[in-house]
Write a structure and sequence with these properties.
Length: about 180
């Protein structure tokens, strides 16, 4: 298990991978990140079998990506004021085979801007995986994507379930709030 816990601040590029799965001769596994601040990074990446992110702030980054094989939970996190070029989004989640489950709960995705397809949440699959994402009590506030969707983009073979989420009217985009 790779673990970052407690009052950790990252202001440089970050790539975390750990553990059990072997893919392209690299080993991936459990990653736990709690109570951390990620700011002013050009890229923040988390890859693993099981990834758990609790009470973290991702602010002023160029991209935040989290890809998993089985389970991902993002709880009580803030994704704010991230500036994204091209096809990137404030929070990109995705899954590899075999069909990961992703839960995003009690989070705020706010004031993120993208020149690409989505300003807020992007959901993607790879290698034919069936990615299921459930958002519970997630606030999407003032995200911008003039060439796409400000709130969420859902890729082929992916499913998005919104439960008790708030989508602010200030989200601005060229293709509607959510692109499925």
């Amino acid at each position: 298990i790779f673990s970052l816990v407690g009052e950790v601040t990252c202001r440089s590029n970050l790539f975390i991978r750990s553990g059990f799965y072997e893919f392209n001769n690299e080993i991936y596994g459990p990653v736990i990140v709690e109570d951390c601040n990620f700011s002013n990074s050009s890229i923040s990446l988390l890859y693993g079998d099981y990834v758990q992110i609790n009470r973290c702030t991702f602010q002023n980054n160029s991209v935040v990506k989290v890809w998993v094989w089985s389970e991902l939970s993002i709880i009580s996190c803030l994704f704010s004021d991230n500036w994204l070029e091209g096809g990137e989004c404030a929070l990109e989640v995705g899954g590899f085979w075999p069909d990961p489950e992703i839960i995003i709960q009690d989070c705020t995705i706010r004031n993120n801007t993208s020149t690409g397809i989505v300003g807020g949440l992007g959901i993607f699959s790879y290698m034919g995986s069936q990615v299921s994402v459930t958002c519970e009590n997630v606030d999407f506030v003032s995200n911008t994507a003039p060439n796409g969707s400000p709130v969420a983009f859902v890729d082929t073979d992916c499913e998005l379930n919104l439960n008790c989420c708030e989508i602010d009217e200030a989200n601005i985009g060229g293709e509607g709030q959510i692109n499925i």
